[in-house]
Amino acid sequence: MTEKYAVVVIGGGAAGLSAALVLGRARHHTLVVDAGEPRNAPAAHMQGYLSRDGMPPAEFLAVGREEIARYGVELVRDRVVEVEKGEDFAVVLAGGRTVRARRLVIATGLKDELPAVPGVAERFGRDVLHCPFCHGWEVRDQPFGVLASSPASVHQALIVSQWSKDVRFFLHTVAEEELSDQDLRRLAAAGVDVVPGEVAGLVVEDDRLTGVRLADGTAHARSVLFVGPRPVPQTGLLERLGAELHETPFGAYPVVDPTGLTTVPGVWAAGNAIGFAEQVVHAASGGYRAASAIVGDLLMTDLDAATQE
Length: 309
Hints:
Elements: E1 3-10, H1 14-25, E2 30-34, H2 57-69, E3 74-77, E4 80-85, E5 89-93, E6 98-106, E7 110-113, H3 120-123, E8 128-129, H4 132-135, E9 144-147, H5 153-160, E10 167-170, H6 181-190, E11 192-195, E12 199-205, E13 208-214, E14 219-221, E15 224-226, E16 230-233, H7 236-240, E17 245-248, E18 251-254, E19 267-269, H8 280-307
Parallel strand pairs: 1-2, 1-6, 2-3, 6-19, 8-15, 9-10, 9-15, 10-11
Antiparallel strand pairs: 4-5, 5-6, 7-16, 12-13, 13-14, 17-18
Helix pairs in contact: 1-2, 1-8
């Protein structure tokens, strides 16, 4: 017999666990399928989450798993490889298990594709960073570098100047002529130094970033480097279900209503599955909203069915 759940939550990060907590407390038979690949795994701590500021991401998830277990929610470490919609949803796991669900929450997040500069991937989440709201306080007043990946990187260089007045903007593969006059005026007003030339690698001493090295051999002393990863939304399951996507400067994401309901009836999405800028606190909130909407949706569906009997 194929196991049947009221809801299957695909993704066990902040959004998925938050949805599962609400569903479990509402007495819905719920399964969380977690591939164990959270976006913030490289970070030692997460910031900006009231009452959880500075908490290690792994600890946050471990506490979340303990909480959902109190309400009978099941969690399996596996990956969903296929989803088919019929009268309900058939969810196929990589481990060979197939389960059915009346409703789905897609919380598969996204992956960050880092610039192909030697040393960046190895130090990402330590002294190579991408979000000043996540890490700016911890590295405040240090010498910052910002690696341009497009002319839009000007925005990142300007934002990080809130946390340090010693910022150098490395144009890397971006030509200075690609920056607008307004960009250059703002960079100057913020005290950001513009450095032309391609970045060849990082200077690391005693397992600490100490500089940024250009292709011409010159090195600039820096202890923090901000980069702009290319976000890769994990929308494969949504696409196979026929969900409508909309293009953004940061990739294609599902069209959702305020509760996270996609254009596929019975399928909600939350967290970085719906947008690039969803922080942990936003993801948890999105999971809560989706789950509470599902509780109401299932109740009304069952009540309407009962009135037809």
